[in-house]
Design goal:
With 110 residues, the chain is mostly helical. It is built from 5 helices and no strands.
């Protein structure tokens, strides 16, 4: 709760992200909010999570990182923020793709 009894914007976003995590079928076995928000094209949520120092680690079932999804979804501001937070630009997914190469075939999404 923010001073005065209201909830902070970041707190609301984090609560929404946590609620989404419980409903996400593609990610039911993992819990990486930054990754999930990148994959779900939620740039404002990602930025709020990063502002609260949420970890940028984690991969999906195909070893794609949040950075893979941020590039693939053309979220430039998120890409920059992820790199500042230490995301690995050299991380390859199961198909050998680097994050900056994006995701070329949506049918292979985990």
């Amino acid at each position: 709760m923010a001073p005065g009894g209201g909830s902070s914007t970041a707190g609301v976003v984090l609560n929404a992200a946590n609620t989404y995590l419980l409903q996400a079928e593609d990610f039911k076995h993992i819990c990486f909010p930054v990754l999930q928000c990148c994959a779900s094209r939620m740039p404002l949520s990602v930025l709020a999570l990063l502002n609260k120092n949420a970890p940028v680690s984690g991969t999906d079932a195909r070893n794609r990182t949040a950075l893979h999804y941020a590039y693939g979804n053309q979220m430039r501001e998120v890409v920059s923020a992820l790199l500042v937070q230490g995301a690995d630009p050299a991380a390859q997914d199961d198909y050998g793709w680097l994050p900056h190469q994006g995701i070329s075939d949506s049918s292979t999404l985990a």
